[in-house]
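Box 4.2: Ligand-aware structure prediction
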Amino acid sequence: MIVTGAFGALGAIVTRELVKAHCRLACVDQLTSANAPSDSADCIVLAGIDLTDSTATCKAMMNAAGRLGGIDGLVNIAGGFAWEKIDGGDIATWDRLYNLNVRTAFNAIRASLPYILSGGRIVNMGAAGAVKAAAGMGAYAASKAGIAKMTEALSEELKDKGITVNAVLPSIIDTPANRLTMPQGEFERWVRPEQIADLIMFLLSERASAITGALIPITGRV
Ligand SMILES: NC(=O)c1ccc[n+]([C@@H]2O[C@H](COP(=O)([O-])OP(=O)(O)OC[C@H]3O[C@@H](n4cnc5c(N)ncnc54)[C@H](OP(=O)(O)O)[C@@H]3O)[C@@H](O)[C@H]2O)c1
């Protein structure tokens, strides 16, 4: 398994669940942070990888696939958020979020595909907010809508190879960063990273072999 954005709030939980399930995996992130698990044959740590850089991404995936002996699943979690209204906003924000959310996923997928085995799985991170964009969410929602359409198109392209491609669409995730920026929020209504990890583990499993091209909202009580 490959997890991108593996040192972030959700990535760390998904990584933990994969390790618990005895998966061999590679954790890819641009951070070189203390959050990183320690590198081992079963949990390869590829830190400091900028997934907007296609050459660096190709090298990282080749390295991971070589050490793991192929790739059964790719979980694209790397990404991010910005809130900015269009009136008075900056086109650079749109470019930045496109790079952060679409380009990273595209590069990771393109670089991994040669190593993804039949029966493989790709899980992308969309966002519930991309279905109907709220004020200030234009650039973010557009980038996550890009993930949704990438998921649908790729699922069709890979159907006959037996590789499934799905996306999960969270609302607000209960992360420390979100609690900090929205201290008045109703945290108990937000979706917990563990709940999203459960859904991702299901999509990676044999039981989900007939599910592809799905955009699955996971929104807690938001
Ligand atoms: N949090 C939410 O409420 C929410 C809701 C819906 C969807 N999502 C999506 O869910 C995913 C995870 O969210 P999260 O809250 O866990 O975010 P997070 O804590 O910021 O984790 C994302 C990780 O991806 C890394 N990353 C960003 N750009 C990268 C790049 N170019 N190359 C390699 N790694 C990169 C980040 O590194 P840096 O810290 O250095 O940027 C970070 O370690 C994201 O795709 C996000 O858009 C989140």
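In the box above, the bound molecule is NAP. The chain is about 40% helix and 15% strand.
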